Amino acid sequence: MNKVVIVGAGTMGSGIGYVTARAGYQTNLYDPFPKVLEKARAYHKKLIDRAVEKGQLTLDETHAYWACVVYTDDLPAALHGADLVIESVPEKLELKKEVFQQIEQLAPPGAILSTNTSSLPVTELAGVVGNPGRVVGTHFFNPAPVMKLVEIIVGLNTNQETVDEVVEFVKSIDKEAVIVKDLPGFVTTRVGLMLISEAIFAYQEGAADKDDLDKAMKLGYNLPMGPLALADLVGLDVVLHILDALFENYKDSRYRAPILLRRMVQAGKLGRKTGKGFYIYE
């Protein structure tokens, strides 16, 4: 495997592209919006400059990085010769299906097609392509350059060769892989969102103020950040969307979204992305 194409250069796509280029893969980062590509390039430059300042990259390695990555709004050109395509567009099933159909028409027939989804059904996505055996889920975590885990989601029609190749790819970019079944929420989203949701319920009920609630979970369970701060990082709109999807799939009240969360999203308080969530960000 030599050439990786990232379709969608937003927060996750640009982070994944940085990781693959740093690992030496020829990386094409595609997005239809030039401003998104400019933002991704600026983000990469910031990361590279920081790595150089810390002595983590030499000048030669910096040149090698920029030789590996291409930013493009030309999808056919981006997909030419691809070995692995990682779709990373917004978490909307119909949009992802449409993108997958476009990718299948343009990518080489032997390319592995993966989706960076945190909750959507991989088997259903694979159903829109002619060879669903080459479709797999690769759930990266934000921020992708820092987080070590990639959750590999195996659809009902995903073949073992595809899984094996993706596991080796994950190892090659210095990440850890876990293999999970294609169930709603997989493992990390299903379990992690329950922690966030219960924390919001506790805050909504006045069990503790936000600082003490997050502090209790950080120190009591050795977490890197509290669940309310994590919700702000993920995006409260994303948290709500996933909880609603889990509730729709499982019909279980455990996945019912807290009314406070719904009201905050309605008020435009989405977390870090808007500067206001459970916390205020300058």
Task: Describe the protein.
This protein has an eight-stranded mixed sheet with strand order 3-2-1-4-5-6-7-8, sandwiched between helices. It starts with a strand and ends in a 16-residue tail after the last helix. It has helices at residues 11-22, 34-53, 59-68, 75-79, 93-106, 122-126, 160-172, 188-204, 210-221, 227-234, 236-250, 259-266; strands spanning 3-7, 26-30, 69-72, 84-87, 112-115, 135-140, 149-154, 176-181. Strand 1 (3-7), helix 1 (11-22) and strand 2 (26-30) form a beta-alpha-beta unit. The radius of gyration is 19 Å and the shape is globular. It is α/β, with parallel strands linked by helices and 282 residues long. The protein has two domains: 3-181, NAD(P)-binding Rossmann-like Domain (Rossmann fold), CATH 3.40.50.720; 193-273, N-(1-d-carboxylethyl)-l-norvaline Dehydrogenase, domain 2 (Orthogonal Bundle), CATH 1.10.1040. The model has no long low-confidence stretch (mean pLDDT 96).
